[in-house]
Design a protein that fits this description.
With 343 residues, this protein is mainly α. It is built from 11 helices and 3 strands, in the order H-E-H-H-E-H-H-H-E-H-H-H-H-H. A 3-stranded mixed β-sheet has the order 2-1-3.
Length: 343
């Protein structure tokens, strides 16, 4: 009897072990199926119907203005030797980064506005997110460096040539790019290592973090927390640096005796401050909050501002409000024969 009971106990244990093995195999097969998603569907503005044609025309015009404005800024800075100073060096790098940033998003969005098939491959989606986050983080860091440049120019004018010598400028620009794309690589890997089983509809017009991560077929709390912490770090560190720099700048400007001197000192910072406020305002609304509070309709509107208006604002602010750039543009136009040489 004891032997028979022992045999029955062994059979039960074997049965339990078999069920566990089968369950693990099912989980592994299911995990493989989850990760076998090959493409996503970008819903974009499909709910707007025929209005998409109007949006296509508007966004195309804005995209062409962004390209022409940023290319003009870079060309003018490159050709005019009077603009070969650190402030305009960083402005040129920022313009290149903004142009690349819009190139990652807008062409695909424009194509989707005219297309019924709005699919994007898994690899293309991951690549788009990588470059999107890379250029966005690089822009944030560049704005922080530009704030430090204004601090050095106004608070330490005599030491400015040493503090912002060309070697230092090159190292700062390279550091911004390396750190930006390192953050991007980590974030993209965290998102696309998740299993995806469906649905595959991304309720956005590009592969942004929040709408993509919501499609994962697993608990994403830890990943969201890590990405949120990274977003806070990438946005708040440069912004804190900018605020500290401008605190010293304001204190120095207030010590200038003449009103004209104060106005000139502040005018060199006004363009940078305008871009910083719009850039960080929109980026903070989209990324500095848990994805549980994600709202597709609101985020699309704010992200349009962030991805189109901010890159558009950058060349317009620095060309319309900056007399040095205006003078350089006039020189370039004169050399091109549009105006008489006497001007």
């Amino acid at each position: 009897m004891a032997l028979e009971e022992h045999c029955k106990s062994l059979e039960k244990q074997l049965g339990t072990f078999k069920m566990k093995v089968q369950g693990n195999l099912r989980d592994q097969v299911s995990q493989a199926n989850f990760s076998s998603v090959t493409e996503f569907l970008l819903l974009g503005f499909s709910s707007l119907g025929e209005v998409q044609l109007i949006l296509f025309a508007v966004f195309l015009c804005l995209y062409l203005i962004i390209l022409s404005g940023n290319i003009t800024i870079v060309t003018v800075i490159r050709l005019d030797h009077s603009l070969h100073i650190p402030m305009y060096f960083f402005l040129g790098i920022l313009s290149i980064s903004e142009t690349c940033y819009t190139f990652v998003i807008l062409p695909k969005m424009l194509i989707n506005l005219l297309s019924f098939l709005r699919t994007i491959s898994f690899i293309h989606c991951a690549t788009q997110m990588f470059f999107l986050l890379g250029f966005a983080t690089t822009n944030c860091l560049l704005l922080g460096v530009m704030g430090y440049d204004r601090y050095a120019a106004i608070c330490h004018p005599l030491r400015y040539p040493i503090l912002m010598r060309w070697q230092v400028c090159g190292q700062l620009a390279a550091t911004c790019a390396v750190v930006g794309f390192l953050f991007s690589l980590i974030g993209s890997l965290l998102v696309f290592e998740l299993p995806f089983c469906g649905p595959t509809k991304i309720n956005h017009y590009f592969c942004d973090i929040s709408p993509v991560i919501r499609l994962a077929c697993t608990d994403t709390y830890i990943i969201e927390l890590i990405i949120f912490a990274g977003g806070v770090l990438a946005l708040t560190v440069p912004l804190t640096f900018i605020c500290i720099s401008y605190g010293f700048i304001v204190r120095t400007i207030l010590r200038i005796p003449s009103a004209e001197g104060k106005r000139k000192a502040f005018s060199t910072c006004a363009s940078h401050l305008t871009v910083v406020i719009v850039h960080y305002g929109c980026a903070s609304f989209v990324y500095l909050r848990p994805s549980a509070k994600y709202s597709s309709s609101k985020d699309k509107l704010v992200t349009v501002t962030y991805t189109i208006v901010t890159p558009l604002l950058n060349p317009m602010v620095y060309s319309l409000r900056n007399k040095d750039v205006q003078t350089a543009i006039r020189k370039m136009i004169c050399r091109g024969g549009f105006y008489p040489k006497t001007l």
